[in-house]
Amino acid sequence: MHFPEYRARRLRRTETLRSMVREVQLDPQDFILPFFVRTGKGVKKAVSSMPGHFQVSPDMLLRELKEPVDRGIPAILLFGIPEKKDPTGSEGYARNGIIQRTVREIKNAYPDLVVITDVCLCEYTDHGHCGVIKDRDVDNDLTLELLAKMALSHAQAGADIVAPSDMMDGRVAAIRETLDEGGFEWLPIMAYSAKYASGFYGPFRDAAESPPQFGDRRSYQMDPANSDEAIREVAMDVDEGADLIMVKPALPYLDVIWRVRNSFDLPLAAYNVSGEFAMIKAAAQNGWIDGDRCMMEALTSIKRAGADLIISYHALEAVRILQGESRTSRKK
Question: Which one is catalytic: 66, 85, 149, 195?
Answer without folding.
Answer: 195
